[in-house]
Amino acid sequence: MSVVEETYDAVVIGAGHAGCEAALALARMGQNTICFTVSMDSVAMMPCNPNIGGSSKGHLVREIDALGGQMGINIDHTFIQSKMLNSSKGPAVHSLRAQADKTAYSLSMRKTLQETENLTLRQAEVTELIVEDNKVCGVKTLSGAIYHAKAVVICTGTYLKARCLYGDVIEHCGPNGLKAANHLTHSLIDNNVEIVRFKTGTPARVDKNSIDFSKMEIQLGDDPVVPFSFSTNPEDVQIDQVPCYLTYTNEKTHEIIRANLDRSPMYSGVIEGTGPRYCPSIEDKVVKFSDKNRHQLFVEPEGLNTNEMYIGGMSSSMPEDVQYAMYHTVPGLENCKIVRNAYAIEYDCIPATQLKASLEFKNISGLFAAGQFNGSSGYEEAAAQGLVAGINAALFLQDRVPMILDRSTAYIGVLIDDLVTKESKEPYRMMTSRAEYRLLLRQDNADLRLSKIGYEVGLLSKERFEHVVEKERLIDEEVERIKEINVGARPEVQSLLESYGSIPLSNGIKLVDLIRRPELDYDKLAPIDPDRPSLSDEVREEVNIYIKYEGYLTRQARQVKQFKKLEEKLIPADIDYDDVNSLRIEARQKLSKLRPANIGQASRISGVSPADISVLLVYLEAYYSKNN
Ligand SMILES: Cc1cc2nc3c(=O)[nH]c(=O)nc-3n(C[C@H](O)[C@H](O)[C@H](O)COP(=O)(O)OP(=O)(O)OC[C@H]3O[C@@H](n4cnc5c(N)ncnc54)[C@H](O)[C@@H]3O)c2cc1C
Hints:
By secondary structure, the protein is an alpha+beta fold. The chain folds into four domains: 5-157 and 183-202 and 347-457, FAD/NAD(P)-binding domain (3-Layer(bba) Sandwich), CATH 3.50.50.60; 205-343, Elongation Factor Tu (Ef-tu), domain 3; 474-553, Arc Repressor Mutant, subunit A (Orthogonal Bundle), CATH 1.10.10.1800; 569-627, DNA polymerase, domain 1. Helices cover 35% and strands 17% of the residues. It has 20 helices and 24 strands. The strands form six sheets. It has a six-stranded antiparallel sheet, with no helix packed on it. Strands 7-3-2-11-22 form a five-stranded parallel sheet, with helices on one face. A four-stranded mixed sheet has the order 1-10-9-8. A hairpin with a 4-residue loop joins strand 9 (135-141) and strand 10. Helix 1 (17-28) runs parallel beside helix 10, helix 2 packs parallel to helix 10 (379-397) and helix 3 packs across helix 4. It is globular and about 90 Å long. The structure holds flavin-adenine dinucleotide.
């Protein structure tokens, strides 16, 4: 029997948030790429919350954009509401979040993939990896077709051996009833890939015509809207926005849940997979936070051309009748009609400690992995990994050194380092608290931190890179200019200070010191700085942050210097830890299993103590002096 046989440079398994970024990066870097999905109608599908961004996730989207990825541009074209979260706090935690029209988001991304040169999108289930001598050579699909390629990126998300559960109902399918992928896991195990089972859940969708919004708090979008992509003209995103709403559960809701916990597959033990701690189901919240008499619920539109409303904060796997009962206790949802039940989904994925920081498997050359398949949770986390895996698969094919973003360069660096270094027993979700250098890793300066890298790997366009170089020049020039300005205690200065409730001057002062006053900033002092050049919003924002936080930024930059010293102490790939005498057994076992690339990474492995690191440093000094 003859089978279809084709050859590509690269194969991407999955067209979810990870797969789309990986496939686009590969194709845009000149690699002839084929991207598989079990359904052409699920490209960049959002099976859960209808929004992109939010705390720390907004940072990831900006970083994806700065490197040349697609998510930021795609949401700027398809959002229906946008908000800058934490804007009353410091710039390190400012985070953009946009409500997406889910269908428009998916269609727009699919169109981008279909219009990209070097990229073929194909509906077929990949069932097998072709691996020879620990090198990946291609894949096979359900029909037996063979696709030869020297690089493969696995981005299978929540589909591998997926099953969906609510109450006693168990369906062997992927999200939204789509086909599950039930064969690839076996091939992975045959190639010595360790598999784990995770789970996540989603709330019900209810018909907006059955909701009484008068009993909820309206949540409006920002005006003006700030775009996600550095390439988007802010004028193009000032649209009419749709509202979201805030309501709460109450004791009645909690009583119904407590009374039916034994009927929840999560509590009856039917569900085997481990769920995300930071995205708990309503059952988990009621059990774990029993002191709380209410939990916030965000009621969000799923799109402009649907009546479906997403009840954020109430994901569950309770039986259908219990879902009706508990949703009907919520103010505004007393008569709601459920359009889609809440459910939990279990799926196969991997401990990402099997991967290098480039997201290539340690034991199979040319095989990369990204997204939920790596044990993370969230569209943004998936897209960030997909981009890195796609870029590194292309660099692998071009025989170039991989792009490794460390913890001091990007949230993406924190995300990947945590995944490949720390053994995680649950889906990993990004949070600002995970980043040591968060004042340096702000969402507003992602382009200044990463666009040079995006350009040098061959993904970001010259035009966008030159725009960033010019922006940097304008920022530096303006900061230098400002630092030279002294301000006298003139009447117009005094009245301006008074208008902001700021202490009047007794003597002359440096303009930078005025900017540093909490009640003042760079823009507010424009009237007393007549020679000020006309600068864009983004340049003025950077100048203000640089001057206001200079002390903290300088201190954090010093800490980064220390951090990099340990990151640059490389560990030979073939080191035999049994050879390092006074290492403790636990450390020896962990280091042998995880094989860190450098001392910095070794120091972040749980079970490896500072004393073990000192032993290792002494051993490496002797090793390198002997071998140099
Ligand atoms: C029910 C549910 C609830 C969720 N709740 C949350 C939440 O509360 N918070 C949160 O942060 N995230 C949540 N998520 C996770 C979020 O959806 C994912 O993080 C995100 O979609 C992951 O993107 P991905 O690209 O890794 O995978 P996915 O978006 O799942 O895409 C996987 C792609 O791989 C394809 N595929 C899989 N196997 C094969 C194969 N063998 N052959 C060919 N194609 C294949 C699929 O067709 C699809 O295109 C939830 C997901 C689901 C399903």
